């Protein structure tokens, strides 16, 4: 699902590359020299971001001024496995790029995975079409009840989805996600000040992303009778200690029984 603007065009903009505009007009550098400086400047920027973020994908994401919590989930999987253990045996992922996330989870030994894509599937490869055809990934509006029985999954993980819901729908959606989870619910949400939906995406998401603070979420959990899972929080913090700093807020909630 390609929602990312043309980053290469942005990198190729000479006005944004250091040193390119510093020559005196009378010096008239050769076109090849100017192009070379643009390329070097771009590589320096990417290299700096790559070094500080741990990967080229993160570097491009930072250049765009946004963070994908679904991409963050990929980085958090090793810590989640350590924190939840056997609860990772039957996982439901809810969020965009569900096909990709489910495919990653299915590669984990002893893990069964399903997915719910809450938005339109603009572009699908053969693997994604197969997952949808077999019912492993479903396209469904999460503002309505999920087509699963209570406790159908050991763990439910949601990313890049709740930020686009108003409190009116969150009051129904999060308890519903907790209903189908037997052992726990993990919610990944963006930090305030991070990315917003682009204008072209509003028709898909329905509204701009509303990125809330951790204190807002905690109050909401209490009001919705959702309890934080203190045991899972401690295990996850221990498992991720010194390994990486999460780029998204990660909340661990108890299931509804």
Brief account:
Keywords: Membrane, Transmembrane, Transmembrane helix. One of its GO terms (biological process) is pectin metabolic process. This protein is an alpha/beta fold and 257 residues long.
What does this structure look like?
GO terms for molecular function: methyltransferase activity. Keywords: Membrane, Transmembrane, Transmembrane helix. This protein has 257 residues and is of the alpha/beta class. It has two domains: 30-63; 65-251, Vaccinia Virus protein VP39 (Rossmann fold), CATH 3.40.50.150. Helices cover 42% and strands 14% of the residues. The chain has ten helices and six strands; from the N terminus they run ααααβαβαββαβαααβ. A six-stranded mixed sheet has the order 3-2-1-4-5-6. Helix 2 crosses helix 3 and helix 4 packs across helix 10 (230-240). The two termini are 35 Å apart.
Q: Which helices and strands occur, and which strands form pairs?
A:
Blueprint: H1 7-11, H2 31-53, H3 56-64, H4 69-84, E1 90-94, H5 98-106, E2 112-117, H6 126-133, E3 137-139, E4 153-159, H7 167-179, E5 181-189, H8 202-205, H9 214-223, H10 230-240, E6 249-253
Parallel strand pairs: 1-2, 1-4, 2-3, 4-5
Antiparallel strand pairs: 5-6
Helix pairs in contact: 2-3, 4-10
């Amino acid at each position: 699902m390609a929602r990312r603007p043309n980053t290469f065009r942005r990198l190729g903009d000479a006005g944004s590359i250091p040193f390119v505009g510093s020559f005196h007009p009378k010096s008239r550098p050769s076109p090849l020299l100017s192009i070379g400086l643009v390329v070097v400047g771009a590589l320096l920027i990417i290299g700096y971001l790559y070094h500080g973020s741990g990967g080229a994908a993160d570097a491009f994401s930072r250049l765009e001024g946004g963070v994908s919590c679904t991409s963050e989930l990929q980085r958090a999987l090793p810590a989640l496995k350590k924190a939840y253990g056997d609860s990772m045996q039957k996982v439901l992922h809810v969020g965009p790029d569900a096909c990709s996330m489910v495919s990653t989870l299915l590669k984990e030994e002893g893990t069964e995975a399903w997915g719910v894509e809450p938005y339109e599937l603009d572009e699908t490869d053969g693997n994604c079409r197969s997952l949808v055809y077999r019912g492993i990934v479903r396209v469904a509006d999460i503002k309505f009840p999920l087509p699963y029985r209570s406790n159908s999954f050991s763990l439910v993980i949601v990313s890049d989805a709740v930020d686009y819901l108003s409190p009116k729908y969150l009051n129904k959606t999060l308890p519903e996600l907790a209903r189908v989870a037997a052992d726990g619910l993990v919610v990944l949400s963006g930090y305030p000040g991070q990315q917003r939906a682009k204008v072209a995406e509003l028709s898909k998401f329905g509204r701009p992303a509303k990125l809330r603070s951790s204190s807002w979420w905690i109050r909401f959990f209490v009001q919705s009778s959702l309890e934080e899972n203190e045991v899972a929080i401690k295990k996850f913090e221990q498992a991720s200690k010194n390994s990486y700093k999460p780029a998204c807020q990660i909340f661990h909630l108890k299931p509804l029984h």
